[in-house]
Amino acid sequence: MIFETHSLSEPLSSYIESVFHFKDFVPDHSIERVVPTGHVFIIFELDGMKRNTFDNETLKPNQTFTNAWISGAHRNYISISAHQKSEMFVIQFKPYGAHPFLHVPLEELNEKVLPAEQILGNEILELRSGFLGKETSQEKFLIAEDWLNDRFNTDMTPPQEMISFYQKIQSEPSASFPESANGYPNSQKHLIDQFKKYVGLTPKYSQRILRFNEILQKINQKEKISWAQIAYECGFTDQSYFIKEFKHFSGFNPQEFIKQDFEQEDNFFPLDREG
User: Are residues 31 and 70 in the same domain?
Assistant: First the structure.
């Protein structure tokens, strides 16, 4: 399997979390659950295989995607297909980073996975064709970087005070929201409006997602899981609320999660893993 990432320079690196390419991926499952992280993605299939999203309850396909698509910020988990010998190219924006490239308010993409040409026109399909014409990951990365530089609009970058606020809740996701909002130079309504435009989700909801992902990190760091300790470390004083919040974002209660042996996974959890 090939898995390559690309380091970007400024200003792109301030707004883009990761750019990566993989080929000949062979998963041990065909459907996986993706928990929310607050990121927006542009995803390209380079293998000609159709991808699906699924109803979370019935796991019946509800949408099909080819070529390139955009996944906006999600409030809950989604279910997607995984494929044998697949090849994909992915641009992952920082949670506040997509607007200068997509040029639409991020709130419009919430809870959506949609064909990328609906937002970016035929140029995104031309970019995919460029990827297909190159053999190496590095060649693909250079094409993507040129495209990103062309799309980047400095007039659409989020204000620094909003970025600083996001970075604050990112560094301390377990803090109370009033405590985190203390010191923001404008009104709470202004903060919410800024988040809807540049992040998509509200600041409070973004902080909830960050806290849930902190829980996942703590699970991965511990050899023996004490749910009461993790709940305490992540700012939950009510165990039942902790369980409810965990299930809201993952679809599993904590004990189910551990029984599925998900501890070493990232944000993608197999639903039909062999064995």
Answer: yes
Q: How far is CA 3 from CA 18, 19, 20, 22, 232, in A?
A: 13, 11, 7, 4, 37
Model confidence over 154-210: pLDDT tens digits? Answer: 999 999 999 999 999 999 999 988 889 888 999 999 999 999 999 999 999 999 999
> Across all residues in the chain, what is the average pLDDT?
94
Specify the amino acid at residue 46: L
Domains in the chain: how many in total?
A: 2
- Express each pLDDT in 30-84 by its tens digit: 999 999 999 999 999 999 999 999 999 999 999 999 999 999 999 999 999 999 9
CB burial of residue 258 (10 Å; 0-12, 13-18, 19+): middle
Q: Would you state the structure tokens that stand for residue 23, as one six-digit string? A: 């080929």
Residues 180, 148 share a domain: no
Determine the Cα–Cα distance for residues 128 and 138; give it in Å rounded to an integer: 15
Q: Which strands sit side by side in the sheet containing 68-71, from one edge to the other?
A: 2-5, 16-25, 86-93, 40-45, 68-71, 113-115
The domain that contains 34 carries what CATH number? 2.60.120
Domain coverage including residue 188: 160-270
Q: Is the pLDDT of residue 263 over 90?
A: no
Specify whether 83 is located in the same domain as 106.
yes
Is 71 in the same domain as 205?
no
Q: What is the identity of the amino acid at 143?
A: I
pLDDT at residue number 275:
44
